[in-house]
Amino acid sequence: MHYQAIRGTRDIFPPLSEAFSAFEETAREKAALWGFEELRTPTFEEAGLFQRSIGETTDIVEKEMYVFQDRGGRNLALRPEGTASVARAYIEHEIAKKEKKSRFFYIGSMFRAERPQAGRYREFGQIGFEILGESEPSAEFDLITLADAIFKDFGVKKARLHLNSIGCLACRGDYRQELKNSLEPKAATLCEDCQKRLQRNPFRVLDCKKCSPLLAGLIPPFAKCGACAQHEKILFNLLETLPLPYNHDPKIVRGFDYYTRTVWEFLHPDLGAQSAICSGGRYDNLIKDLGGPEVPAVGLAFGIDRSLEANAAEGKEKPAVTKNKNGVFLCLASNSDAVVSYALKTATLLRENGLGVSYSLFKDSFKSQLRQAGKSRFAYCLILGEDEQKAQSYKLKNLTDGQETDLPWQKLVEKLKC
Ligand code: HAM
Question: How far apart are CA 163 and CA 236, in angstroms?
Answer without folding.
Answer: 9
